[in-house]
Design a protein that fits this description.
Helix content of chain A: 10-25%
Order of helices and strands of chain A: EEEHHEEEHEEEEEHEEHEEEEEEHEHHEE
Distance between the termini of chain A: 43 Å
Radius of gyration of chain A: 19 Å
Strand content of chain A: 25-35%
Oligomer: homodimer
Strand order of the largest sheet of chain A: 7-6-20-11-12-14-8
Chain lengths: 323, 323
């Protein structure tokens, strides 16, 4: 089952069940938005799957692609991991920082009061902040009680999403050195239009990992196509880590961190900082800069059949209005 | 004006306007909860102040003290600073870490999907995690646009609250060393029953600081009475820091960090870790441990007249149910 959220003027938008080909959608009268549905998922899933069968049989309206928002335009919690060791290794080179020694998943708490829609222009105040994209996968949870083990956590993963975790690199290292994590360096993320149940991924959902290529274009040029399979921890392990000392509210999103592969020389990467590290390894210094106002980024996760299951993130970086 | 939230079985509770003596409360039909009211504060404030005048004239019901929740039982964002230099200095000794060199406020993003009520027992999984309290002040904001300057930020501070930022010290240093900030070491906070408009604090609201003694009792014994005036940055400056690269959603809470004073030998402190650092300074090693199951903590902010303007946090640490 694929779900999307249409802009209807409300903060949480209008939940739609989407046809398999992504061209039609239908709203369910009982479930106004995804935040409400994920809060009572065992009931909502039954209703939404019945509607999904109707949509498959031809019900629904043409999907208003330009009015789609993030599946969850806001939620109660966003915890982002850094689960790809290749990403961690390359960022250490890009940032000129020491190797992080830690026997648990790396994870930070980010802002969850706003997620940009898939085609929404994204405003930044200053190009000098080092505007970078980070292509990731994420999972949406129902309520997870404190102390849930990884083996049980897999059943709390209700939906899978594709995320662009916008990052401001010039602000990142000073914040990281405080040990307090990122506030200024991590503004709101963007999310691809379709949230899908894990079964939609078929064999590509394995060991709590999204084993799909994440294809990234910067200014319409191919930039990377790393695969999600190389996570050092599966999403169920990330959920257990997050829930070790707290309940996780229904609607919590857990991110994978930037998708990266050991054969980066072949597949490229999912953020500019990594690419700069690859240049440092190859020639001693980075040559590419970060994003400029007017730049675009496109991200989509391709199935082996060439099908973008989450739809596409396609965004333009713009200058924030001066205050 | 003082506001509280009564448990009515809903996630956000029922907003009450509270009498000046804290004994009576009344609900407004238009504003079911504080999260809704803060989202449209210019309208809500007019309605709630009219009701406040009625309550002052005798309207309302006896306040159900045991059923009061946090003023905001959940909200969209919680950003906690560490604005007291004395706290930062003592924590460096307690943790055995290096001095943090940073020319901006220290701030991390914490969980905001749950705030414990003022008398709610607080469950933890393991005493070995180093259960500690942190007495703080905080402010509740309406919507703050990205790039708002400190001079303008002061007008976005609509309410002031008193917070216990529960912390798990054994988990804190390893997480801090990753640079990613705290996830496992920072479970949900508790909040005192009354959120107050800044004018309720009179002269004690100065330079964006709550210039009141925060009186802390651990197991009914006096532990600290540090004053909120020694913040290195005022709340308006903390808001501007937080809003540098993001909008802040209405309902965002910004925390001061643990209240601490340079004359700690005289006034004590607002968390156990600081007290351990004070012992290290005095005698080379800490003698006190952290909280045990069954321990209690009480916190209230006293006006010069001996009046606890936010009411009291009074909580018992309990063992979380085994899973």
């Amino acid at each position: 089952m694929r779900l999307a959220t249409r802009d209807d003027g409300t903060p949480d938008g209008r939940l739609l069940v989407v046809s398999s080909d992504g061209t039609r959608g239908a709203a369910h009268p009982r479930w106004p938005n995804l935040l409400a549905a994920i809060g009572d998922w065992s009931s909502a899933r039954i209703d939404l799957e019945a509607l999904h069968a109707d949509v498959a049989a031809g019900a629904g309206e043409p999907l208003p692609a330009q009015s789609l928002r993030a599946p969850l335009p806001r939620t109660w919690q966003w915890l982002d991991a850094s689960a790809f060791q290749t990403h961690a290794d390359l960022m250490q080179i890009a940032f000129g920082t020491e190797r992080i020694e830690h026997d648990k998943p790396l994870m930070y708490q980010g802002l969850s009061d706003r997620f940009y829609g898939p085609t929404e222009p994204v405003p930044f105040r200053d190009e000098a902040h080092g505007i970078d994209f980070e292509g990731e996968f994420g999972v949406v949870l129902d309520h997870v009680p404190m102390g849930t083990a990884a083996a049980d956590a897999i059943d709390h993963i209700k939906l899978v999403v594709q995320i662009n975790d916008w990052s401001l690199r010039s602000l990142a290292v000073p914040e990281m050195k405080t040990g307090f994590g990122w506030v200024q360096a991590k503004p709101a993320c963007s999310v691809a239009p379709f949230a899908v149940t894990p079964d939609e991924l078929g064999d590509a959902w394995r060991d709590g990992r999204v084993c799909l290529d994440l294809v990234v274009y910067w200014n319409a040029k191919p930039f990377g196509r790393a695969n999600g399979r190389e996570m050092a921890y599966g999403f169920h392990q990330l959920v257990a880590h997050a829930a070790a000392t707290r309940d996780l509210a229904a609607g919590t999103i857990i991110g994978s961190g930037t998708v990266a592969n050991a054969n980066y020389a072949e597949v490229g990467s999912s953020c500019i900082s990594e690419q700069r590290a690859i240049e440092i390894i190859a020639s001693g210094k980075p040559t590419i800069g970060f994003m400029q106002f007017g730049d675009t980024v496109r991200m989509e996760a391709m199935t082996p059949a060439g099908w973008a299951v989450f739809g596409a993130i396609e965004q333009t970086v713009v200058a924030a209005q001066r205050r």
